[in-house]
Every structure is written in C-alpha cells, then in structure tokens.
Amino acid sequence: MIKELTNEQRAEVLATALPYIRMHNGQIVVIKYGGNAMIDETLKAQVMEDIVLLWLVGVKVVLVHGGGPEINTLTKKLGKEVQFIDGQRVTDEEMVDIVQMVLAGKINKTLVGMLSQHGGDAVGLSGLDSRLIQAVQRDPKLGFVGDVTNVNVKPILDLLDGGYIPVISTLGSGPNGETFNINGDIAAAAIAGALNAQRLIMMTDIAGILRDKDDPESLIDSITVAEAATLKEEGVISGGMIPKVECCVNAIERGVGNVVIMDGRVPHAILMELMTDEGAGTMVTR
After folding, report:
1. Which residues on adjacent β-strands are paired with residue 152?
2. In this structure, are residues 96 and 216 in contact, taking their beta carbons and an 8 Å threshold?
3. What is the dihedral of CA 115, 170, 183, 140, to 10 degrees?
4. Which of these, 209, 233, 213, 182, lies nearest to 285 by C-alpha position?
5. C-beta separation of 169 from 65 below 8 A
6. Alpha-carbon distance 3 to 104, whole Å?
7. DSSP state of 198
8. Strand, helix or coil at 207?
9. Which of 55, 134, 228, 261 registers the highest number of CB atoms within 10 A of its CB?
10. Nearest partner of 54 among 199, 169, 172, 156, judged by Cα
11. How far apart are CA 146 and CA 181, in angstroms?
C-alpha cells in the first residue's frame, strides 16, 4: 500500500510516472463508467479519486456513465416490470421518465459530488443539454431507445477549456423533442469519436477479451480492428462481448486513437492503464 512506502520509494513512483504524464497531458481521454462496475461504493470513490488525479496532471477527462442496476432497482420499487428484448431495455413513456430520473438525476449528481469531494471541478450534463446527444428511435418495439445520429461537442469542449471535468449521462434528444435512452457504450463511442479523443476507456465488470471465457489468465492484451473481426468469426468474441467490441471498432473508425475494455472493479485500473507499460484489460487499436 502507498502509505507503507518510504519517501524514497514514493519519489521513485512519481519519477516513473513522469513519461506517462507527459504523454497524456493535454489529451482527451473519455472514460465510460458502466453500471455494474459502479456497485461497490468504496471502489466508486477510488475511481473518482483516480479521475481527479488524472485531471490534476493535465489529462482532459470526460466521464460518461451508465446506471442499469440502479434503474432496475427503482423500477422494481415503483412496482413496474422490467422488460428486455435481445438484451435491450424496453423503454415506454413511464420507463424513460425513470431512466431520466436515475441517470440525469441521482447518478450524475452523485458522481459530480464525489469528484468535487476529492478536489476536482466537475460539471454534470445529460445528452439532452444543448442537444449534446442527438438520436433517433432504434426500433418501435423497444420504445424510447435511441441510436446516436450526432454529438454536439461544443458544451463538452467549453467545459474542458474551462478546466472542468464533464460528467455525461446517456440520454438522447430526438428530432421532435423526444427523450431517448441510449446504451452507455454506444454513447461513449460516439462522444469519444466526435472529440477525436486519444483514448476511450470502457470500465465494466469483465477483465477484457478472453481467449477462453472460462480462464481469466487467457486475457488478450491487444488486438487490431482486423483481428477483432477474426476473433468474432472464431467465436472467441461472442455473446455480450460482441456489441462491446463493435462499439470499440466504431469509436476507432470515428477517429479515437485506441479503446480499452477493462474491469472497473480492479483498484486503480485507470491508473494502471494510463501510467504503466503493462496497462489493464484489452486494447483495441487501428
């Protein structure tokens, strides 16, 4: 633990981090914080602390968050049935109100408050603000579930230029004023691409891409877009990992430098990714 290090060891840690600080200083890094990775409150506080540290050393961090488990909890408390079709939440008019309350309200403001508590200057946004995330309906049978058509980056860039950490909830604005529920991975990929971010970090509850899904030691450190297609054909990338990797590829095609899928439940995973050669999780590159 860091508190057990000698002063000399602490100085060595800081000196070792210097090349990485130089590399990422002034660069935009989008962090997608997944709902299942947010459950542990102690880890959540640690993630916010790590984000503030990155912000303090000059990384332009944009935090995009989901909140599926909390949406499910509130929905059940209200006595409403939770429905999914092909893994996607059915979002009727009542459900979209619940999603907005949880994402743009409770979770967004909680994360902003935690960042502020650790010394960061954070501002909460939803995709509805200044039509930040513009969307259209994905499929009528899913209700108010949207696909991103455009991202208005001006409010994000204004906050970054002002020295703030933008914290964005994934709601989308429809052409006729509708509110759409947007998948967090899809929204983060679109936002990162529109910002030409250096890196998109997708924090979730899985270690990354495993060559053998039952063997945690079979983690693949890095793949290219072409290799991702091959691994999908071979069945290595399957199930819920398919849409996640598709989001990674989409982000890279939109101009993101590289994308990392990592386990957000691992302490200091973000710092390991950005401040060490080994990194964390699986990196997808062009």
Report:
1. none
2. no
3. 160
4. 209
5. yes
6. 37
7. S
8. coil
9. 261
10. 199
11. 6
User: Where is mean pLDDT largest: 6-10, 76-80, 195-199, 260-264?
Assistant: 195-199
Where do the H-state alpha helices sit in the chain?
7-24, 41-56, 68-77, 93-100, 108-117, 154-161, 184-194, 225-234, 241-253, 269-275
Say if pTM beats, i.e. exceeds, 0.85. Answer: yes
Q: Give the C-alpha separation, 103 to 27, whole Å.
A: 27
Residue with tokens 């590159």: 285
Place of tokens 């660069």: 27
At 166-202, the pLDDT tens digits run 999 999 999 999 999 999 999 999 999 999 999 999 9
Q: Is 33 exposed, middle or buried (0-12, 13-18, 19+ CB in 10 A)?
A: buried
